[in-house]
Amino acid sequence: MSGQVLTRCVSRTLLSTSGVKCAKFRGTNRNYWTNFRRKSASLTRGGAVVLLGFPTMSCLLYEAHHRVQSSAVVHALEKEEVLEQADYLYSCAETEKLYQLLLQYKNSDDTEFLWRLARASRDLSLLPDMEAGRKKQLVYEAFEYAKKALEKDDSSFAAHKWYAICISDVGDYEGVKVKIGNSYIIRQHLETAIKLNPKDATSLHILGYWCFAFAELPWYQRKVAAVIFASPPTSSYEESIQTSTVRTC
């Protein structure tokens, strides 16, 4: 019974859309009507299912698309809230809480999370009561987070800045040769950070300090560096002053 009703509904729908009136079919039109009924019946057995499925499929596709969009919006809001909370904890010097918050995102591919986690790991390592083994672990963790942040987005000035800072810290555990070798890398990334954000005071200060440190390097240390490297890093007090003042104008 339900099949017959469905046949009539589909047939009437198709007839009405084609502009044909069933009541006026007479004589020779009867064959057309019979053929049409047969075609309608075949549609109910298979084709009509497809016709009836279009609205359902459209609804499902719309629902799926809507859910994806909603999920993206929720994720964006969640990210902004977490970053806002992280920056607040950093301003309050809540180092341990900040580290625990960001540690949840250590496997993230988002540079904004990663460079902040590198900073938090380094700050935690600098706490006065930090055990030596744990401090070393945090230093290397910070470097890995900064490295990953830079790999994910090399247009982030913060990623370049914290990569330079963290690789400098690693040099303290790797010996003089590695530390001097890393000096070239440190300067390169600091200059890139400044190029991306000329108003970042931290990058300007650190690069100025880098220049000052190599300008102040004693002659005997220069001799040692010259033995290890053909052309060791050099700088001057003038360059240090220029880096810290002229670039901030």
TrEMBL record:
Pfam families hit by this protein: RMD1-3
Segment forming the signal sequence: none
Stretches of the chain forming a coiled coil according to its record: none
Assigned GO CC terms: mitochondrion; mitotic spindle pole; spindle microtubule
Predominant location category: cytoplasm
Subunit relationships: Interacts with microtubules.
Name of the protein in its database record: Regulator of microtubule dynamics protein 1
